[in-house]
Amino acid sequence: MDAGEDVKVPLLLQQGTPMTKVSAKKKKTVIFRIDADEGCIHWESNKAGIIAIENIKELRSGADARYYREQFQLSSEYESRWITIIYILDGSYKTLHLIATSTDVFRMWDSTLRALFAVRQQLMSGLGHGEQRQAVWEKRYWKGADEGGDEKLTFAEVECMCKRLNVNFSAEEMKSRFEEADVQKRGYLDFSDFQRFVKLIKVRPELTQLYTTLSGGKDGVLDFTAFEKFMRDSQKSSLSKDELENIFARYATKQEEGRPSTITLDAFTSYLLSPDNAVFTDHNGKVWQDMTRPLSEYFISSSHNTYLVGHQLVGVSTIEGYIRALLHSCRSVELDIYDGETEPVIYHGKTFTSKVPLRDICVAIAKYAFVASPYPIVISAEVHCSLPQQDLIAEIMKATFGDALVTAPVDGQKTIEVLPSPEALKGKVLLKAKNLYVSEHEQLREKSLTVDTESSTETSSDTDMMQEFRVELNKARNSEPVKELKEEFQKARNMESLKEIKGEFLKARNIVSRVRQKSPPPSQASSSAPASPRPHALSLPPRSAQSPLPTAATAASTAPAPPKVKMSLDLVGLLVYTVGVKCRGFNKKEHYAPEHVFSLSERTANKVLKQSMWDLVKHNRTHVVRIYPSGTRLNSSNYEPHRYWCAGAQLVAINWQTFDLGYMINHAMFQRNGRAGYVLKPLALRSPTKDLFSKYSKHVLDVTIISAQQLPRPKDALGHEIILKSPIDPCVEVSIHIPDWTHSPFVPASPPPIPPPPPSSPPAAAAASTARVATYKTSVVKNNGFNPVWEETLSLPFDCVGDMMDLIFVKFAVKDEKADDNEPLAVFCVSLGSIQQGYRHLPLHDSQLSQYLFSTLFVKISIRET
């Protein structure tokens, strides 16, 4: 539905209809109604249930919601009347399951909700739809302000509304605007008067000043000559004159014959808030990059522990993690597969996480794989199953994915010389798993690097790992998931069966033992006796300067016989372009076939970056590598993925259930190229020579924070707005996140210092917070969350290797100085490779990166080389 259409909500749904609300505990009949003006679903409950339409993430009905009906073990007769609403509340995903009383009522609810949802989705996909956005705003706040329901607003009701909007007016200023809007002097505002009042409080002096400057004075006009100069000088536009004339014509007012067309202040404001002036270069949402290059030449949106929707020790395993990731164009999902009672199941090994059948997850992947993007899905599987259940894995995948599952090279060639392209694999599903028949024949070879095997559940017992674990444990100690873990221990204590107690204790001990194995005492560490290699890792024992390297023959004679390979040939047959192998290091003796993929833990990848980054860059030009988070991230936090993208790693896996900085950077990267889930790597990472990598440059990002518009109000845990005693005190924090170029062999050892920021920058811009992050902050505007104005310039220094601006990210965070938790009110994050310079409105988002309907930040952006 077009955002300009007005959705008609049936009177029956406005008044409310009884529906059965279903949960795991009970079924209850409740009255549900839709308030179209406020954009909410309401229902009667002890906690006054409410869901804002813009907080809905997905609507499922009928057969699409069958998974939940079957989970609740309810009859199939309910299927034709079943609605599931998936939404965000207090930073977490929630579900509401409803059964309508009749198919007619079901159809009414289903069609109306989908129409309202479609309009909100369009309004939340960037800038634009200005008139519709304004109409939605006016209806929402008119309805909310009209407490008496008499279609009249008294001055007291207007005062209350302004408080809700964080408007910083004195009583005299507000009274003056109220009287100006009340043109008939009746002492109240009808809807037309209310619209006039809104226009008065939304006046933006900063835009009036800019328009006056561009048009040449108070009585000047903005004709095409002035508009073109603005576009070239301020906006750094590279559009042709014809293209600029087309844009100008969309906003210009035609004059009398013989006089040139001009743009009014209102039209200029509309232009600045339109998609024609978007800050994000990919705003048209189309795939524009070359999709015919080999897979290894793309960054691929990837998920870690996709089956989890919470904590990695005690979280819930569910199909929801896959659906959410796939609907956001994730192209690589993870399966940890174990033996089930009858069929394989998915869960996080050696933890308290719940289990879900592999078949259910494959059905969900098949259904949602190509809804958001047509490009191939890579299923990264860790298989911990017996041979019979490995056969079942192959059987289930073949039956579920059908012809979409790649079981042989698509070009018919027996030998793979180069990986196929995303275009050639459109609509295809690729399985990536370790091929044990390949691993069996790998010999232990000399190398300077110790690398972990492919396992996202693996941890180490060395000192570094213990330190890392302690840091993460301190972060997570007071979190909700740790409380859940304590509850699991309490359950174990209260069990009647001693056998059950032992079982639960062993589960807990397995978790702890992964990170609490003691390091060898100093005396042993300094001994000449070789230390035992870590389990599941390739390493070499230390040797003295006099001792020769062991030969392959002596190594083979002293090493224990490897266990016989146990891997289903049916499963091996599904490994075509993504064959999992161990990383044997990088040297001339090592050869990896184009289809060989290895996985590196975060810790191992960090070692590679320090010791042999250039070798990894070269390898990643023709081969695919997966990076996954450390097992010590107990709260499922994320690393910053651009750290590994700068070495060309394609599958940099993220915990999609955790909305942190790493998630935000990943989201910003894959908003590009039409949200296809594939982004072409910078030329420096694809070029066969080192020439581009040798280019090193220093820059400054100058950002003028001009103003903000209608900042969001905080909400409580139930989704209700919190009416504060006084408006918020906003400030803006801007940070630039730069890959660690320091390990690049081409970065100078002592680069020249970055010049200080210009005098217009505030003292807060004195220095970067760390070597790789520069963070600057504006002053605070007191008591104004409606239209605060700063007019402050921040200058953020950064360096760049190989012109890889795509891998540098800038984050804007609007904060309330009064807030205790330091959590931002709203954020926006974008790659410097996708940013437009000049005067731009940034669409602000919540912490889950859902766009606010009405909140924007007005800035001026420029990038200069130093």
UniProtKB/TrEMBL annotation:
Biased composition (Low complexity): 452-464, 524-559
UniProt key word S-adenosyl-L-methionine: no
Family matches, as Gene3D superfamilies: C2 domain, EF-hand, Phosphatidylinositol (PI) phosphodiesterase, Pleckstrin-homology domain (PH domain)/Phosphotyrosine-binding domain (PTB)
Domain PI-PLC Y-box: 571-686
Pro residues compositional bias, start-end: 748-762
Keyword Signal part of the UniProt annotation: no
SMART domains in alphabetical order: C2, PLCXc, PLCYc
GO molecular function per UniProt: calcium ion binding; phosphatidylinositol-4,5-bisphosphate phospholipase C activity
Catalysis performed (reactions): a 1,2-diacyl-sn-glycero-3-phospho-(1D-myo-inositol-4,5-bisphosphate) + H2O = 1D-myo-inositol 1,4,5-trisphosphate + a 1,2-diacyl-sn-glycerol + H(+)
Protein name, per record: Phosphoinositide phospholipase C
Species annotation: Rickenella mellea
Lineage: Eukaryota, Fungi, Dikarya, Basidiomycota, Agaricomycotina
